[in-house]
Batch of 4 targets.
Target 1
Amino acid sequence: MGLSDTTIRAAKPSKQKTIKLSDGGGLQLWIQPTGSRLWNLAYRFDGRQKKLALGPYPTIGLKTARALREEAKQLLVAGIDPGQQRKVDKANKAAL
């Protein structure tokens, strides 16, 4: 079962370590000891475990985070590393 917005808002930070709440499909919400909440996507590419930062909660809501996860999964199906693609997109945007 995935996360709900109520569960995310009710989660309290730990004083010593990062708490990871999983939504499924590699999507995780990391709650830092400082109280900040960050979306991350764990995935495998070329046999290696990788992580892609999606952004902070609540700026990136649950629905948007799930959509970003699906976009990344589509890139993986096409044989493209989502982290590398983000770097290419950023470089192309800066060149304009």
Target 2
Amino acid sequence: MSLALVDCPTGLAGNMLLAALFDLGMPLSAVEGPMAALGLAERYRLVLREQRRGGLRGMHLEVESLEREPPHRHWGELRQQFARADWPVALRDRVLAVFGLLAEAEAAVHGTAPERVHFHEVGAIDAIADIVGVCAGLLHFGVRRLICAPPPAGHGSVNTSHGPLPLPAPAVLEIARRRAVPLASSAGFAPGELTTPTGLALMACWAESFGPAPNLVPLHTGVGLGSRQLDRPNLLRLTLADPWPGEASAGQEIRQEPQLDEEPQLEAAELLLLQQAQLDDATAEDLAFLAEALRQAGAVEVFSQAIVMKKGRLGTLMTALLPPELGPALRQVWWCHSSSLGLREQLQPRRILPRQIETWNSPLGEVRLKRTRLPGGGERLKVEHDDLVDLARRHNLSLEEVRNRLSGRIG
């Protein structure tokens, strides 16, 4: 069941999404385990009840805080807490992406840096449970494609720790702007909040598109209920489905969905921020120092290219790829260690194959092997370059001689 559809006629909220997952049969342990790994097992309680809205049944979820004095959790602290948690990599990446987007949106509307954002509502224990639980639940059901209907955001105002704020909430508008999320009209609704920053951030990070559902075969539907009483059923539906067998004949993209006994798709997708600057007045040593500073600050990749700039000047195009939430921190590196007066930024998707590092006792000594699984079922093995250099120095051999002696023995 790799395809999911979120229908949200009365808006999006984290607790509604989580309630729908529980209605689909997700066990409590799917949420309690990751929360316990954060050291938060005794700080909240999930209250799940079957209720009705406008005559329609569903599940309503409330996350009760057991913290006597809830702390103001800064994003920098939360990110370290998530990074240290004993979670699967997929869950950690998803939770970091959602909270990172929230931090950037809150920072933009409050005029501060994401690292300094301290979450009142968003970072409270209920929002942590919602975000961790929804990400864990979608992974539990094996969701790889998710399509969400455009949600209505609401109108009027809402009371927050900052006082009354206009609706849609400023962070909701900022998330929608950053990720080009369409918002449905709130005409006909009574004043009030319909879509929360937490709910929209979850869908902005999970949904491949916002719009009508494609042809599909519904398999299971979970219903999550909102807390507000409206003049219509306040609910959200999360449907797990199979693609329609004839979808490709209508000109849609062909997707081969694995059967239950087949191996799932190996490649994983992540969203990275690309930062670039053109430099024409830096020495090679300056460029090397800048590249290392960017790597130390968290860049995933840093590389440079020779370019010809205006008036025939030779220059260097320096590029860094990094997690989007690290954008503000790395900008400071650029301003501090380069002479550039401008910086280009662009969000780019990246697809990666799974890999793991193994230790191999080779005839020349212990080395690390990077083993990569390929979609066709094969594997690719490569010895870590630093270990090759170490063996060459230890045995007074050239790198070519080390490679030749290890060739054919790797397995």
Target 3
Amino acid sequence: MPKLPVVTGAEVIKALKRAGLTVRRQRGSHVIMQDRQSHVSVSVPVHGGEDMPSGTLRGILHKLDLSIEEFRRLLK
């Protein structure tokens, strides 16, 4: 299994936008994004440039059915 990249919340949001998700709203330091096709929503924490915990990132990818390889491609 490939390793998860170390990314910030802002980098995750950029990558998910490339995957076709849109920002629906923001409440505090959490951005709610939604997939246009499946209407699945995820909450992405944006905590002042801190690295996202690996479990949080893994949960977001799992909910969106994205592999680590696909996510790495979206980061570029």
Target 4
Amino acid sequence: MIKSQPFEQFLKHDTSYPITFDLANLVVHERNLTRINFEKYVWAVDAIVLNLFTAYLEDANKTVGISRDKNFWDGKDKFYGNPKLSFTAMVTSLDALKKHGYIDEVLKGKQAYLGWHGITTRYKATEKLIKLFKEYTWNEQQVYVSPEFPSIRLRGKKPKRTVMHPFPKGKLIEFEDNDRIQLMRKVLDLINENLKDTDINLYISKEEEKELNRRMANDAKDEEELDSSVRYHKKYLYRVFNQDFEHGGRFYGGFWQQIPSEFRSRLTIDGFHTFEMDYSSIHFAMLYHKEGYKKEDFKDPYTLYIEDEQLRKVIKTTMNIMLNTSSFDEALVVCRHHEMKLPKGTYKTWKALLEDIIEHHKPIKKYFFKQLGTELQKLDSDIAEYLITTMINKHGVLVLPIHDSFVCPIKDLEVLIDVMHEAAKKVAGLSLYLEPKVSKKNYKGFGGKTFKINESDYYQRRKDFLKTIGLYYLNEPPNYV
């Protein structure tokens, strides 16, 4: 199986110009091009080379899927694409770089037919290009995403669920800009500028990183939004809305959102260990509040009559399916085809579990099967926006959002909790129950353990980051708080 990653159109690198300028010159002279916009070829080569570089960092044999379809680059669906990249410049550059031995074409693309997905042409860096990476001492911390990337995205109506696609997504669609959208974009610009200038890292050993990448490769299902390995340069956020700007709006894009939850306890922010706080059962807390229940009256909605942690996780997923489907029967089909399983000794059938949830949650049962999930997401995403910007502007603290939970340096945990309460009150007019995911004493690797330099790439990644912002680096472990 060929390892591959999708092409990112908005990658940037502040010191890539010496390589890409020379390679763009090679492309232009190879094709004997005249009266051309040379910058277009620089942009094309830059994008190609940076994508191959990020793939090479994970595995020298990893490929990048790069479209050779004219409609992809120059067609009507350019709304979310990079306007600087054109079909002619991209394909001409790919062919010239291949001819001169800088890139290899590993797999030819195939058009889609009869409902099957097509295959994008796969490319990888050759030893000749890798030699340039090493000569100019590139590292992943120097790679970032251009501020021009589409930070506000709108998806159309979801297609019908099928056995093959139980969780379908609507296609990205165009929208008209307005003052409100421009304001959201400015807020994201502020957040992303802070993310770019912050060292966000994982304090893990090399063996743990191998296990993490293996887990991510096994879990990857969506080439567009799921990575099969940790890609540390993905520190930018964007908001995704559903059908209109009153539904959805959650923040996506950060590499920390895609790693398994047990590894998130190993995140560091500017060298400080972190802690994750979440709004417990946020959507169901909102619904109970709507029915007049106070925070004190609200119990854990994911524990019915049987105390079982594995069952609790299944109930949590099931209740969210019930919020996002249009009927009992549809929810039943989704549960039956979901990868989760009913734990032994609990419920015999999915139907029995759904009926028990409805009985247990009588006060809010009218909200099930109404497809309210994205409407509630709009509210929790607005809470997140208020929280993140308040932490930056008022307290000078960067927090990492994971939908209804937030990661911050342990030293700033008290401030985060205060702002979480403030955000829920200001935006939604309610108090939400806060619940730490893991206690400090359970954090693996905490309590004074320091990895030796040869046990982890953490120190090199941190050193590389500090070089990019011009700071001197000392071989010291992260800050303990």
